[in-house]
Amino acid sequence: MKNLLEIKSLNTYYGESHILRDVDLNVQTGEMVCLIGRNGVGKTTLLKSLIGLLRQKKGDIYLIGENINRKAPHQRARKGMAYVPQGREIIPYLSVEENLMLGMESLPGGLSKNKKIDPFIYDLFPILKDFLQRKGGDLSGGQQQQLAIARALLGKPKLLLLDEPTEGIQPNIVLDIENAINQIIKDTGIGVLLVEQHLHFVRQANRYYAMQRGGIVASGNTSELSQAVIDKFLSV
């Protein structure tokens, strides 16, 4: 496997507040990496820094071997990075089909050359096919999350960033999302960087990084995730 994403000594600020402190992290082709930690330690800030919504003050971000420090979010998306934010941010007044179509804007030629939704999305999330003409805002929280992930996948990313995809979602939908992510990794070999508190989903990942006070303080294989680490970084 090779590194899809490599982060070196990343430092990010909110105004004068120093949030990320010398973060080193990597995600390889075909693996899921989980970022864990209590609320407020910088996990979402890290994802926003990676996609370019926040600009780091120091450090480097490499995507497929290229330094992307100066690239705008849409340029990072076209290079192969997709982001599903906490809260999903689907467009409520657009239909499910229209929301899905937006995911193809990052493909070569954008929507002018990509007008057909790849049916693999319906294999992953069958409910979306039944609700294509329903407004995004009329879906349940779990259905909106499936829509948000499907929209990101339609851009055919090489790296998928997911910010707490199971938050506030019923258990059966959590399992559907877990299965879909595992299937897309198996089928396409993409890498996934996941922020998650749901222990069962955390254990689906190959590796974990634990954050505290804006820095990485522990890491390893999830198969070796100890109860002490779980209690320290996952307990509410």
TrEMBL record:
<keyword id="KW-0067">ATP-binding</keyword>
<keyword id="KW-0029">Amino-acid transport</keyword>
<dbReference type="InterPro" id="IPR052156">
    <property type="entry name" value="BCAA_Transport_ATP-bd_LivF"/>
</dbReference>
<dbReference type="GO" id="GO:0016887">
    <property type="term" value="F:ATP hydrolysis activity"/>
</dbReference>
<dbReference type="InterPro" id="IPR027417">
    <property type="entry name" value="P-loop_NTPase"/>
</dbReference>
<dbReference type="Pfam" id="PF00005">
    <property type="entry name" value="ABC_tran"/>
</dbReference>
<dbReference type="GO" id="GO:0015807">
    <property type="term" value="P:L-amino acid transport"/>
</dbReference>
<feature type="domain" description="ABC transporter">
    <location>
        <begin position="5"/>
        <end position="236"/>
    </location>
</feature>
<keyword id="KW-0813">Transport</keyword>
<protein>
    <submittedName>
        <fullName>Putative ATP-binding subunit of urea ABC transport system</fullName>
        <ecNumber>3.6.3.29</ecNumber>
    </submittedName>
</protein>
<dbReference type="InterPro" id="IPR003439">
    <property type="entry name" value="ABC_transporter-like_ATP-bd"/>
</dbReference>
<keyword id="KW-0378">Hydrolase</keyword>
<dbReference type="InterPro" id="IPR017780">
    <property type="entry name" value="ABC_transptr_urea_ATP-bd_UrtE"/>
</dbReference>
<keyword id="KW-0547">Nucleotide-binding</keyword>
<dbReference type="GO" id="GO:0015658">
    <property type="term" value="F:branched-chain amino acid transmembrane transporter activity"/>
</dbReference>
<comment type="similarity">
    <text>Belongs to the ABC transporter superfamily.</text>
</comment>
<dbReference type="InterPro" id="IPR003593">
    <property type="entry name" value="AAA+_ATPase"/>
</dbReference>
<dbReference type="GO" id="GO:0005524">
    <property type="term" value="F:ATP binding"/>
</dbReference>
